[in-house]
């Protein structure tokens, strides 16, 4: 649950339980900030994490590091789709 707590603190929101877009086997967080809005869903296994980003970027920001992520490694497959809102 270390990653769960990191995500909860990062988005400053509680997990969405009643109205989920993705499988209830994972954890879904809905957020809306000045910079972005959307859904972050993840499933954490013993040695892996699967995650889905469904996010609309309002303002681009570049972060060079994130506090608390020293113990996590990521491999990303990124699929982009563009739609006007």
Number of helices: 1
Let me know the largest β-sheet: 3 strands, antiparallel
Strands, total number? 3
Question: Mean of residue pLDDT?
Answer: 75
Which secondary-structure class do the elements indicate? alpha+beta
**Shape call:** globular
What's the helix-strand series? HEEE
Which consecutive residue ranges, at least 5 long each, have pLDDT under 50? 75-79
Strand order of the largest sheet: 1-2-3
Question: How big is the Rg?
Answer: 13 Å
Q: Estimate the helix proportion, in percent.
A: 10-25%
Proportion of residues in extended strands: 25-35%
Can you give a write-up of this model?
- The chain is an alpha+beta fold.
- Helix content is 12%, strand content 28%.
- The chain is built from 1 helix and 3 strands; from the N terminus they run αβββ.
- Strands 1-2-3 form a 3-stranded antiparallel β-sheet, covered by helices on one side.
- Strand 2 and strand 3 (49-57) form a beta hairpin.
- It starts with a helix and ends in a 28-residue tail after the last strand.
- Mean pLDDT is 75; it is low at 75-79.
